[in-house]
Write a structure and sequence with these properties.
alpha+beta; Arc Repressor Mutant, subunit A; 4-stranded antiparallel β-sheet; 14 strands
């Protein structure tokens, strides 16, 4: 019996690593010989606080802030506030207050520089991390038990993932963001390694956020569930596709509209009655056949609007969906969209009249409701033993929503497309992504 318990405990053993800011190593060595007058001071505790600041960035780009809660940091590093005050006084870190919580701040290193990935040797810190991770697990959402169960079963090939991070970094050394992306990838791996697994429903847009939501795309090939490598499935032109739900709302969509937009705005949108307009028909055809971006690419060229590639074109078009109503005055992309799709733009302007971000948030609500409440639950009903994950781009305001499974891809695709048609009234183009071989 003892041997069995030992085996199980050994299988659950986590790895604990941290990200080291290389430029701070000389300072840490000096402090080892001249410790600060902080109770229980160790350089390993200071290193870990720096790691937290580097590893909890809200975005992938260099200079991004990390949102950290003081209580969380104090749980791992006693007197964390004194360490942070010293680092700030020395010009190593800076912070700004975070309006959503008096006990939270946005932190960042003034100059992050090069980073390295190293094991944590301080057993006291590891014990405190384990205690903190237990609290994180207690706070996880219980809304989608089937998805939560799958998230817990995910395994990551750490050695392979780290190799991919370095390969990606070396292939993009000329890119200004190469160092930042490498550090961001280190952070994602570190959280999974140490068991800092979270899954929470976003109160604003209803999405299910987890460790795998923002995992860099090149690392997805290293994920498995029950030994099965995962593959992604999403819909073409996902960002503009969900707009068609507003042209002639189904009963499900109208109920969502009334809850989020209110009765008055819902009725106003419906009385626009734009469904039969030619530009609306053209828009609907383009997004349901997956040709919207190709069409806009051609139009950009015809009107001499410069763009560096498909990603840049999408970024320019996001202002149409998520920018202010007068975006066409400063954005050539928005001006062109308004000219080609005047009635679609009229719908957008109506919804965004009082709050320009209302359209963006509502489209996210439609997306999360459709994919989480309907698609994944239908997959669970028809394929109850199939583990699956959901993933979305956490950086873009309305990034592509992905379902990840290890098998039965064709069945899942059929369920996904049919369910979306039931909810939205139109079927999208489903597509399966292929990863490069490991």
């Amino acid at each position: 019996m003892r041997r069995t318990r030992f085996k199980k405990r050994k299988q659950r053993k986590k790895r604990y690593n941290q990200i080291i800011a290389v430029d701070l190593i000389p300072m840490m060595k000096r402090l080892e010989h001249n410790p600060l007058p902080i109770p229980g001071f160790t350089t390993s505790r200071m290193q870990y606080l720096v790691h937290l600041i580097i590893s909890h960035k809200q975005y992938k780009h260099p200079g991004a802030y990390s949102l950290l809660n003081m209580e969380y940091m104090m749980n791992v590093v006693p007197c964390a506030n004194q360490y942070l005050n010293y680092l700030r006084k020395e010009g190593i870190i800076e912070w700004i207050n975070y309006s959503a919580g008096r006990n939270s701040r946005l932190y960042r290193l003034c100059d992050e520089g090069k980073t390295e990935y190293r094991a944590i040797s301080d057993r006291k810190i590891i014990r405190r991390i384990e205690q903190n991770n237990y609290k994180i697990r207690l706070g996880n959402s219980k809304k989608y038990p089937h998805l939560n169960k799958s998230i817990r079963k995910v395994e990551l090939d750490y050695a392979g993932a780290l190799k991919t991070v370095e390969l990606e970094y070396n292939n993009n050394l000329d890119n200004n963001n190469a160092e930042g992306r490498r550090t961001f990838s280190y952070a994602a791996i570190s959280k999974i390694e140490s068991g800092e697994i979270y899954f929470k429903v976003n109160a604003t847009n209803g999405r299910l956020d987890s460790n795998y939501t923002s995992l860099p795309g090149e690392l997805l090939k290293h994920l498995t569930i029950d030994g099965q490598p995962l593959r992604e499935m999403d819909i073409s032109n996902a960002q503009p596709f969900f707009v068609v739900a507003l042209f002639r709302p189904t009963l499900e969509i109208e109920n969502l509209m009334r809850k989020f937009l209110g009765n008055s705005l819902t009725m106003l949108v419906k009385t626009l009655d734009i469904f039969e307009c030619e530009d609306v028909k053209r828009y609907t055809l383009l997004v349901t056949t997956g040709k919207f971006y190709d069409f806009m690419m051609t139009k950009f060229k015809e009107h001499n609007i410069t763009f560096t590639g498909r990603k840049d074109l999408k970024q320019q078009l996001f202002v149409v969906f998520f920018g202010k109503n007068y975006a066409y005055k400063y954005s050539p992309a928005a001006k062109l969209f308004k000219r080609i799709f005047p009635n679609v733009q009229r719908l957008f302007d109506t919804i965004k009249k009082d709050h320009y971000n209302k359209l963006a948030i509502f489209l996210q609500r439609i997306e999360s409701y459709t994919m989480l409440e309907r698609v994944t639950k239908n997959i669970e009903l028809e394929l109850p033993e199939l583990p699956l994950l959901t993933k979305h781009d956490s950086v873009l305001p309305f990034g592509s929503f992905t379902i990840m499974v290890g098998k039965d891809m064709d069945k899942v695709k059929t369920i996904m497309v049919n369910t979306i048609k039931e909810v939205i009234g139109f079927a999208p183009q489903g597509r399966m992504k292929k990863y490069p071989k490991i």
